[in-house]
């Protein structure tokens, strides 16, 4: 996955297709299209899938900070998602604290959990790292399931469905879509910010070689911890938004390995280590899976996931740099350097 | 006192069955340097296969071994050709994600064909074996014996036969093995198929002990990962050690704390091992770096 920093030739101009460290016409058009899509008002049948697509795109971007840029492939991000969701919901239900503040508490709690995970896995690479993140999320899930005085256990927690802006319970699905789009925008801006910063280069350095990075004066553990904490914090924010949209939480879904896998697959399909990749991944895969679910879900249980997973296998094996990689090849053919 | 002995005995027996289920994973990891995230789903379909043999053909699950093991060998070869080999020359993440997508595929194919109902077979042995104050389930004892025979046979195969030597050479240095005239791609294929066949064997032994349902693989694959990492990936005796550790931790903590929390303990055990002994309990130096893009 060769990555090129912004080339001198294109400086001062906005490029057509996404490049590292540059905004492109493609991204601006995509953003405007999203704003228009939400602004025009959503058809009820499309509202759910729009909200979900934006939310998952934001979560995929969050995962990509650790997984794509820093090479910390985590199959345990559902833990951070759950921590964010539970933190704000428990604060709301037990202490009447508005989720607008709870979301920040959730983000901080998730960031702390992310740092702990990064320190636990300090010496691990490759498959062992992946398995440890999986085990970490299982510890959090079993903990949440059994600490029922705090989390409601298997019965879960419900938020009263009374529209109230102060409690982040919105009246219409369009309003939720706008909220999710803001989250997507935040995650995208953070990703672009990292790309343009010194920290971003540190991440790429430790992804490509720990030893070389350390020799160049980077502290790998510190950078890994930072990347994981940032990624976890953004994931935690997504968790709170999810809780405020569905108004119900239970550990078997919110902290499930399935969710962790989903969060990792979206950026992998879209293109790891690119800002636009996770967004494209979610924009293609989420509506596809929802569409399959609504058309085939009744015909035969599981059929939609059978087709979905076949698509994923083919994409992973034959387009390993994802949708963004395919786009990148397209531009290179047009304009050879 | 007899309680604790009972717990340890049950733990060792169930742990050895867990070890049998993990050997395929550790073998594939040791030779191909990949983690098969669909390993649990291989177990699930093999358990369905054994169940189908017992329910529709009327075979005893242990007799079903003769059908299930060869079928899983072929299935493993097929998966290797279609999913694993195309990803081997790409970044190691590709195989990780492809096998993960495969696990979603197999789970949902099973859900479609077999529905979400729990399937099980009637108990094989009418009563437990009693030795002094200790009660032992016949199915567990049989699982233990099968595991011991299978590990011994595998060890013999790896140490003594030509195929075993070729496998060991491939593990040590794939390129040098190829220069010595070993068909490394064929060794990969055989190892992957053999790993799947071992899962088939484990499934036949486990069916009398556990129900099968489409997502059963997830529970077991997590246990298998813990065992394989505890033992230090890639070694068969160490998988046995890891399995026994997990089994004892699960049975003791399940009795003294609560069955649900028993699981929590072995994940914590796993994380502790990863922090303090990332190469596994008996692992050689450098095991933790296996499978990292080289």
In short:
The complex is a heterodimer of chains A (337) and B (294). Chain A has helices at 25-39, 44-69, 77-95, 99-120, 126-146, 148-151, 173-196, 198-208, 210-215, 220-246, 251-254, 257-270, 276-296, 303-318, 322-334, and strands at 157-158, 248-249.
Distinctive features:
heterodimer, A: 337 residues, mainly alpha, two-stranded antiparallel sheet, 2 strands, 72% helix, B: 294 residues, ABC transporter involved in vitamin B12 uptake, BtuC, 2% strand
List the helices and strands and how they pair.
The complex is a heterodimer of chains A (337) and B (294).
Chain A: H1 25-39, H2 44-69, H3 77-95, H4 99-120, H5 126-146, H6 148-151, E1 157-158, H7 173-196, H8 198-208, H9 210-215, H10 220-246, E2 248-249, H11 251-254, H12 257-270, H13 276-296, H14 303-318, H15 322-334
Antiparallel strand pairs in A: 1-2
Helix pairs in contact in A: 1-7, 2-7, 2-10, 2-12, 2-13, 3-4, 3-5, 3-10, 4-10, 7-8, 7-10, 8-10, 12-13, 12-15, 13-14, 13-15
Chain B: H1 2-32, H2 39-57, H3 65-88, H4 92-114, E1 129-131, E2 134-136, H5 138-160, H6 162-172, H7 174-179, H8 184-206, H9 216-231, H10 236-256, H11 259-276
Antiparallel strand pairs in B: 1-2
Give the name of the CATH architecture of chain B: Orthogonal Bundle
> How do the strands of the widest beta sheet of chain B line up side by side?
1-2
Report helical residue fraction of chain A. over 70%
Based on CA atoms alone, the radius of gyration of chain A comes out at 20 Å
Structure annotation, total helices of chain A: 15
**Percent in strands of chain B:** under 5%
Structural class of chain A: mainly alpha
For the largest beta-sheet of chain B, the strand count, sense and barrel status come to:
2 strands, antiparallel
Helix-strand pattern of chain A = HHHHHHEHHHHEHHHHH
Q: Tell me how many strands of chain A there are.
A: 2
Question: What is the strand tally of chain B?
Answer: 2
What is the overall shape of chain A? globular
């Amino acid at each position: 996955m060769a990555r090129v920093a912004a080339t001198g030739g294109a400086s001062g101009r906005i490029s057509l297709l996404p490049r590292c460290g540059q905004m492109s016409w493609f991204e601006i058009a995509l953003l405007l299209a999203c704003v228009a899509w939400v602004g025009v008002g959503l058809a009820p049948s499309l509202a759910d899938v729009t909200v979900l697509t934006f939310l998952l795109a934001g979560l995929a971007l969050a995962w990509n900070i650790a997984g794509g840029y820093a090479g910390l492939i985590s199959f345990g991000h559902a833990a951070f998602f759950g921590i964010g969701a539970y933190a704000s919901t428990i604060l709301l239900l037990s202490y009447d604290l508005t989720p607008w503040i709870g979301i920040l508490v959730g983000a901080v709690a998730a960031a702390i959990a992310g740092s702990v995970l990064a320190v636990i896995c300090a010496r691990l690479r490759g498959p062992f790292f992946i398995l440890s993140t999986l085990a970490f999320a299982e510890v959090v899930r079993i903990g949440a399931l059994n600490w029922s005085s705090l989390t409601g256990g298997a019965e879960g927690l419900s938020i009263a469905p009374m529209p109230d802006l102060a409690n982040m319970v919105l009246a219409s699905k369009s309003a939720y879509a706008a909220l999710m789009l803001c989250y997507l925008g935040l995650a995208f801006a953070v990703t672009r910010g990292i790309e343009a910063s010194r920290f971003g280069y540190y991440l790429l350095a430790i992804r490509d070689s720990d030893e070389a990075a350390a020799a160049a004066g980077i502290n790998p553990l510190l950078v890994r911890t930072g990347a994981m904490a940032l990624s976890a914090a953004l994931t935690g924010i997504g968790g709170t938004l999810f809780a405020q949209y569905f108004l119900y939480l239970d550990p078997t879904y919110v902290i499930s390995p399935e969710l962790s896998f989903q969060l990792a697959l979206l950026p992998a399909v879209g293109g790891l280590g690119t800002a636009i990749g996770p967004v494209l991944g979610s924009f293609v895969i989420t509506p596809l899976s929802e569409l399959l679910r609504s058309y085939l879900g009744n015909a035969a249980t599981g059929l939609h996931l059978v087709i979905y997973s076949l698509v994923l296998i083919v994409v992973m094996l034959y387009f390993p740099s994802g949708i963004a990689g395919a786009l990148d090849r397209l531009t290179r053919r047009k304009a050879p350097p | 006192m007899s309680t604790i002995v009972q717990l340890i005995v049950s733990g060792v027996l169930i742990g050895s069955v867990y070890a049998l289920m993990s050997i395929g994973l550790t073998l594939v990891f040791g030779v191909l340097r990949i983690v098969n995230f669909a390993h649990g789903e291989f177990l699930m379909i093999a358990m369905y296969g054994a169940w189908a043999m017992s329910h529709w053909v009327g075979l005893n699950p242990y007799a079903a071994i003769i059908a299930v093991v060869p079928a899983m060998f072929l299935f493993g070869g097929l998966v290797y050709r279609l999913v694993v080999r195309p990803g081997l020359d790409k970044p190691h993440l590709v195989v990780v994600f492809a096998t993960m997508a495969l696990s979603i595929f197999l789970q949902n194919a099973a859900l479609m064909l077999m529905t979400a109902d729990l399937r099980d077979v009637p108990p094989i042995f009418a009563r437990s074996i009693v030795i002094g104050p200790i009660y032992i389930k016949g199915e567990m004892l049989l699982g233990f014996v099968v595991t011991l025979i299978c590990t011994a046979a595998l060890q013999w195969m790896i140490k003594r036969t030509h195929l075993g030597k070729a496998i060991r050479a491939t593990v040590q240095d794939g390129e040098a093995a190829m220069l010595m005239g070993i068909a490394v791609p064929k060794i990969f294929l055989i190892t992957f198929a053999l790993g799947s066949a071992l899962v088939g064997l484990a499934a036949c032994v486990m069916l009398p002990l556990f129900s099968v349902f489409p997502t059963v693989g997830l529970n077991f694959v997590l246990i298998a990962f813990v065992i394989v990492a505890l033992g230090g990936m890639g070694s068969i005796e160490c998988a046995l050690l890891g399995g026994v550790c997990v089994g004892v931790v699960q049975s003791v903590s399940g009795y003294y704390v609560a069955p649900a929390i028993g699981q929590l303990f072995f994940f914590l055990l796993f994380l502790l091992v990863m922090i303090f002994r990332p190469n596994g309990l008996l692992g050689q130096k450098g095991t933790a770096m296996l499978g990292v893009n080289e």
